[in-house]
Specification:
Elements lengths: L1 H18 L10 E4 L3 E7 L2 E3 L7 E4 L1 H18 L10 E7 L4 H10 L6 E6 L7 H12 L4 E3 L20 E3 L4 H14 L4 E7 L2 H16 L3 E8 L5 H11 L7 E4 L6 H10 L6 E4 L8 E3 L9 E5 L5 H8 L9 H7 L19 E3 L52 H13 L5 H19 L11 H5 L2 E3 L5 E3 L8 E9 L4 E3 L5 E3 L2 E9 L5 E4 L26 E5 L10 E5 L4 E2 L9 E2 L4 E3 L6 E3 L1 E3 L6 H26 L4 H4 L9 H7 L3 H5 L4 H24 L2 H7 L17 H23 L4 E5 L5 E6 L5 H20 L10 H27 L3 H32 L10 H15 L30 H10 L7
Parallel strand pairs: 2-5, 2-6, 6-7, 7-8, 9-10, 9-11, 11-12, 12-14, 29-31
Antiparallel strand pairs: 1-5, 3-4, 13-15, 14-18, 16-17, 18-21, 19-20, 21-22, 23-24, 25-26, 27-28, 30-31
Helix pairs in contact: 1-4, 2-12, 3-4, 5-6, 7-8, 14-16, 14-23, 16-18, 18-20, 18-21, 21-22, 22-23
């Protein structure tokens, strides 16, 4: 839908242009060569004498160099030495002076149908209205535009279709990455407080904003912003330099002005002896025409961050102009013996003593859309000095025009060639752009299925990926900028110079590093610090900081003083219990658990952990109780096991021998509690506590009267409904209840996980640690669960009939449950009311109370009878007692029949009369009955 939405206004604009085609007037001159595919050129070959005038007489050497770059690139491509392209490339180059719009219309409308206009090269700054219309025309005709403008500054205009266009490609590094590289350079030398100077044009302010953003990412503070008019006078520059001499705490300044201010700023800085500043100049600000002499102390140590991609073949191609200037009609116009483009007032230019222009008499536009020129053509007497802009620049000697045409001015031709060669590096983008179009055409030739149409040719350009003649990798990202960017970093040392033609010592740039970014990866910067010469005393790296580095134990905080820059800082001491371990820390951090800040708060020291050690007095007491309880429990278990067949054990219901080993284990529950607190020991204690104290209650529930009456008959036999089950009902009850215990243990551990609590002590380097379960809600649930299980047992045993045989056992068990509730209450009180080691020892003692409660109320009464009252542990085996018991069992089975000894159920038995045998005494049987009735059965 977006594609269609864009097509509708484009077609409307294009139809409007066609309807006006009949009104096309004679545009600027053109240079054309036919081909199956055309490279269009919209180049400013000339400049107007005045802004209001239309006369184009002043040659623009940047435009002439662009024309030569187009001719060179197409010749290389057609020679098939670099790329195998089937079609033959042609060109149609139009001079955009005086009317860029008319030149663009002539280019688009006059292209024959059999010739495919693949792309248009040339700088078309869209912030200028006339060039904005040109871009709209190219957009409406779906013609890709290869731009070499590094600036990302854009003025919003209506209709604003350019921001949505997919046809503008930039084969040059943009200013965003250039400013990013400068910020990286400043950060690498810890220049965290720098100044910025820029001009008040829209583009200058745009660059300043971009640098502010990139600098903040690298924690580089912009101390001062100096703004100069775009056409600053000498007086305005003097005031700016004088302001730099005032009190300041920065020693590095970034230059983001236009090229026209570059020379004047350094001239004035040298006059006013500004020798303690280090300048970093952006690629858009550095003027290749300017050469610095050794006596210009302000320029010593200056950095340049920019691109440099010399193409040796192109320079050789430019030298061929000496013998073949006819290939470029505009050069022929300049060197023709009949023409005169010089200005008398510019024949003897005045040069500065410290900085001189290489071509003061040649009109050159270097500013990509700005009209900064030196309004003069080459004169016969002007001296020309070859540029030496990089450490790797090929030394250019004066070419010998051995066989020039007879109708040319050889001196002018020589000067023009020298000037173009000195500017050759700035044409690399144009050459790379044309090669990108050629590679796109090669892809188009190879495409066989679902191939884009001619109006979608930009999709081929989007996919190119090749290595150019300059050695750069050319590919485009989603924003149609270069996917890989590389900048060279040069330094201007005072001891590296060469002699000029006038015998003066010219400073030479020395390459000291590079900055590279590929795609979305992290930028890489390499610096050779040993090759850098600093503009400071003793050749030391200058400091440019707002404040001295903050020492460990403090952090950088922004000043609130309005007189300082917003990002200027001062050092504040770290807050209590926090540290900073490095210089210039932005924040203070808290020490990890178990560590504490040193007195200087510059590092953390490991704290000593205090807890209830085994060697503490309270722990030793608990160990003694534990050993005593285990030993006594073992003794009781042995006694009861040996007397398991005695009446007191046979009549017992709750004192099960199978529980005796568990009772011994109950005294071992405090072992994890007395261990060093850790996640394993704390969770282990909670699980061990829950299982150990719930299992005795589980066994009592399985032996309760509720289970007996529900699953067993009066003879103690399992009811018919359960006889098919493999397990007995009591075993099933134990298994199900135990499973519930396990589920409760797991759920509580997941919902309320343990943490190691750390409490400060009087010693700052000592902390007391304990398990959070001793205080938190996670253990209260376990205590409530124990009380709930005890309540369930009490309910299940409430219907128990008390008989002489079980009277004392029921009472002791009830007393056990009462103590159980009381001990649970004591556990909660100690857990939430006692602190420190006393809590651990108190909880361990309560654990012993649970074990003692089970042992004392369930087993010790049996042990006491066996050991201290053995006479009560004798079985009643008299004949009459056995007979009575047999009759009682028979009575239960046969309730409707009369028993010879018992009354019939529901009737009153009359006294039995015995016959007197004549001896006057009672019978022997009657005496036995009377004796039996008088016997009292005692049960423990």
């Amino acid at each position: 839908m977006d594609h269609c939405a864009t097509c509708v206004p484009l077609m409307a604009i294009f139809l409007c242009f066609i309807s006006q085609a009949v009104n096309i007037v004679a545009a600027g001159e053109s240079l054309k060569r036919n081909g199956e595919a055309l490279i269009g050129g919209l180049v400013s070959v000339h400049q107007k004498r005045s802004i209001a005038g239309d006369e184009c007489k002043i040659p623009d050497f940047q435009g002439i160099l662009t024309v030569e770059a187009i001719l060179f690139a197409i010749e290389e491509i057609n020679s098939k030495r670099q790329i195998d392209l089937k079609v033959k490339l042609g060109y149609d180059i139009r001079d955009t002076c005086p009317e860029p719009y008319e030149a663009a219309k002539a280019l688009v409308m006059n292209t024959p149908k059999e010739e495919f206009l693949a792309a248009v090269v040339g700088n078309l700054p869209q912030e200028q209205l006339e060039y904005h219309h040109v871009l709209l025309l190219l957009l409406s005709s779906w013609t890709p535009h290869m731009s070499c403008i590094p600036s990302t500054y854009r003025v919003k205009k209506k209709p604003d279709l350019i921001s949505r266009a997919e046809f503008i490609f930039h084969a040059v590094s943009r200013d965003t990455t250039n400013l990013m590289a400068i910020a990286y350079l400043a950060a690498s030398y810890n220049w965290t407080y720098v100044a910025v100077v820029y001009d008040d044009s829209g583009e200058g302010r745009h660059r300043a904003r971009l640098f502010q953003q990139e600098a903040s990412k690298k924690f580089v503070c912009v101390a001062r912003n100096y703004v100069l008019p775009a056409n600053s006078s000498e007086t305005q520059i003097q005031k700016f330099i004088a302001a730099l001499k005032a009190a300041r705490n920065f020693s590095v300044i970034v230059m983001l002005t236009s090229k026209s201010l570059f020379k004047g700023i350094f001239d004035e800085a040298s006059k006013q002896k500004i020798n303690d500043l280090t300048w970093i100049v952006s690629d858009d600000s550095w003027d290749n025409k300017v050469t610095f002499f050794k006596n210009n102390t302000a320029a010593h140590g200056t950095f340049r961050v920019g691109t440099s991609a010399p193409i040796v073949k192109f320079k050789e191609f430019l030298y061929q102009l000496c013998n073949n200037p006819q290939r470029n009609k505009w050069i022929m116009e300049m060197v023709s013996s009949k023409s005169s483009v010089s200005s008398p007032k510019d024949k003897q230019p005045t040069l500065s003593a410290s900085v001189t222009s290489i071509q003061p008499s040649i009109a050159i536009n270097f500013s990509s859309g700005s009209n900064v020129t030196t309004n003069a053509a080459p004169s016969d007497t002007a001296s020309v000095t070859p540029i030496s802009s990089t450490a790797t620049t090929v030394t250019i000697s004066t070419p010998q025009c051995s066989d020039p045409p007879s109708n040319v001015n050889q001196t002018k031709l020589r000067q023009i060639v020298e000037t173009l060669v000195s500017m050759a590096d700035s044409a690399t983008c144009t050459i790379d752009s044309i090669f990108a179009v050629a590679h796109a055409l090669a892809q188009k030739e190879k495409c066989t299925e679902n191939c884009p149409q001619n109006h979608e040719f930009y999709t081929y350009i989007q996919k190119v990926d090749f290595k150019s003649l300059s050695g750069h990798n050319i590919s485009f990202n989603g924003q149609r900028n270069l996917d890989e960017t590389e900048y060279k970093i040069w330094n201007l040392p005072k001891n590296s110079f060469s002699l000029s033609a006038k015998g003066q010592s010219e400073l030479k740039l020395s390459e000291v590093g590079s900055w590279k970014q590929s795609g979305n990866g992290a930028p890489e910067m390499t610096l050779r610090s040993k090759k850098i010469h600093w503009n400071a005393k003793n050749d030391q790296i200058p400091k440019s900081i707002c404040h001295e580095p903050c020492s460990p134990g403090s952090y950088k905080a922004l000043k609130k003083n309005a007189t300082e820059a917003e990002c200027c800082w001062h050092c504040l001491k770290c807050r209590k219990n926090t540290v900073s371990t490095v210089k210039d820390s932005l924040t203070c951090i808290t020490c990890p658990d178990g560590w504490a800040p040193r007195p200087g708060q510059d590092s953390c020291i490991k704290q000593v952990e205090d807890y209830a050690y085994w060697s503490d007095g309270g722990s030793l007491v608990m160990l003694f109780i534990m050993v005593a309880g285990v030993c006594f429990s073992v003794y009781v278990a042995v006694v009861l096991f040996k007397n398991r067949d005695t009446p007191v054990m046979r009549r017992s219901k709750n004192a099960m021998l199978v529980m005796l080993p568990l009772v011994i284990i109950l005294f071992l529950v405090p072992i994890p509690l007395l261990h060093k607190p850790s996640d394993s020991s704390c969770e282990g204690y909670r699980a061990f506590f829950t299982w150990a104290f719930c299992f005795p209650l589980t066994a009592l529930i399985a032996k309760s009267i509720y289970v007996d009456s529900r699953f067993y008959d009066s003879d103690g036999q399992i009811k018919e409904s359960w006889r098919s089950c493999m397990c007995t009902p009591r075993v099933v009850v134990v298994m199900v209840t135990t499973l519930v215990h396990v589920i409760v243990i797991i759920v509580v551990a997941v919902v309320f996980p343990n943490e190691i609590l750390r409490f400060p002590t009087d010693d700052p380097f000592t902390i007391y640690i304990e398990c959070s379960i001793h205080t938190g809600f996670g253990f209260l649930i376990i205590i409530f669960y124990l009380m709930f299980i005890a309540t369930v047992y009490s309910i299940f045993s409430s219907s128990e009939e008390i008989s002489p045989e079980n009277d004392m056992e029921v009472r002791w068990t009830s007393l056990c449950m009462f103590f159980w509730y009381a001990i649970c209450f004591i556990y909660v009180v100690i857990g939430h009311g006692v602190y420190g080691k006393g809590k651990v020892w108190g909880l361990a003692f309560v654990d012993f109370l649970f074990a003692v409660d089970i042992l004392a109320c369930i087993y010790l009464p049996k042990w006491y009878v066996i050991v201290f009252q053995p006479e009560k542990n004798q079985a009643d085996v008299s004949p009459w007692s056995m007979y009575v018991k047999t009759q009682e069992k028979a009575f239960l089975r046969v309730t409707n029949e009369d028993s010879p000894m018992m009354e019939k159920h529901g009737t009153t038995r009359e006294p039995t009369k015995t016959k007197d045998c004549g001896n006057g005494d009672k019978s022997e049987s009657q005496e036995l009955i009377n004796n039996t009735e008088s016997v009292s059965v005692t049960d423990v």
